[in-house]
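INTERNAL AUDIT FORM
Audit reference: QA-55
Scope: verify that the stored structure record matches its stored sequence.
Auditor: D.O.
Record contents follow.
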Amino acid sequence: MKKKLVFILVVGLVGGIGFFNFSLTQETQKSDQQSTATTIPLTLDNLRPRASYDPGGRRDPFKDLIGKGRVSGPASTEGGQLSIENATLVGIVKTQKGYVAVISGPQQMPFFLRIGDKLADGYIFDINSSQVIFRKTHDRGFPLMRPINVVKEINPEER
């Protein structure tokens, strides 16, 4: 008998709460309909101006500080797929203008790179007769606090 009474009370309370919530949602819907009727339509004329940056003689905080210097234009590979880790040093060629590194990418395609040419995560810092020094400026897409020099050498048998 007590179980039936408790069950009836619980069902009655749950039903009452559901009815109360239903009536509240109807009231809020009515108030939302009234408030939407009074809003002003947004056009380009009445929008606030977007934020702008005035340097005021200071340096631009969004400009790459490491990118200054001897680094040349766009990346040497399509889409920046050639990174320092997957670059294999095949050879070094001496020309009248200096040294040129012959580097093989992940698709086994050769690239002829000079000092300052960009890769996906850095650039070529220096080339001499037996080694290429890469300067790694990014790791997994994030800039490094301190650049890391990565040296790749030619085997003595291949010189």
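Auditor finding: record pair retrieved intact. The CA atoms of residues 7 and 97 lie 93 Å apart.
Action required: none
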